Amino acid sequence: MQAQSTSSAAHVPTQGVDAVEAARSGVSWGAILAGAAAATALSLVLYLLGSGLGLSAASPWSDNSGVAFGIGAILWLTLTQLAASAIGGYMAGRLRTKWTSLHTDEVYFRDTAHGFLTWAVSTMLAAALFSGVIAKMTGTAVDAGAGVAKATMASGAAATAAAAKDNGDSAGGNPLDYFSDMMLRTDKPDTTGGSADLRQETMRILANSVKNGSLAADDRAYLASRIAARTGLDQATAEKRVDDVYARSAAAAAKAKATAKEAADTARKAAAGTALWLTVALLIGAFVASWCATLGGKLRDGVAHVSHR
């Protein structure tokens, strides 16, 4: 009778522990949040260190130095993910509650899940805190390429609006000023006071022709007559000057457009490469956090076992 009561008394606490374990969630959010906070803080420290070492800014516009900075930034980003995820995952596994009456496989799964959740929370915190940094890394190249393209288009298609606003007050502000001056070159002094208006009109005609890709016959004849009157050249020579200058301005516009397209393509490739390597680094961080959480969980259970002894 005494042996049976002793056995029954010893079994009751076990049933109570099992019931509590079954009713309790398997997620230790306190440990997860602690590990995520540690990982985010370490990421901030390593980012600041990388900024000081010049490893967090890569320029896609330079040649050799840009490649070196890009490799350095990738390596530093990967190292940051490895260190931060390892610390966060280990702390989550080590600080969790001890799970009783669980199979080893279940404990391993829970530790892995805790490490992954720690990485996920840390990544979201980092995205919220460093959103400007991430946007700069992935968007600077694209924005720069778009800026070059817009500037090129403004020099050609929007030259008419710029000329109307400037009214000739900002000399050298529009690229077509040079070609307008080239058409109106003369050794005769200007005594009429209409050079500014003539230059603006010439620039507007030239800008519209470059935009449309051809110089209309009536515009050609009109420009030749105005140039002949302004410079003293004969009509044939004036028309030849119009053709030559238009050809040069059209070639310059085509070259600028090709350069902008090439720059935009280079920027697109740089942005795609940055996003790809960022994804790889984050996936590595997820794996390391999950693995280190299992290590911390094993040590947690081992320490608890020794203390109960």
UniProtKB/TrEMBL annotation:
The chain crosses the membrane at residues 29-55, 67-93, 113-135, 275-296. Keywords: Membrane, Transmembrane, Transmembrane helix. This is Transmembrane protein.
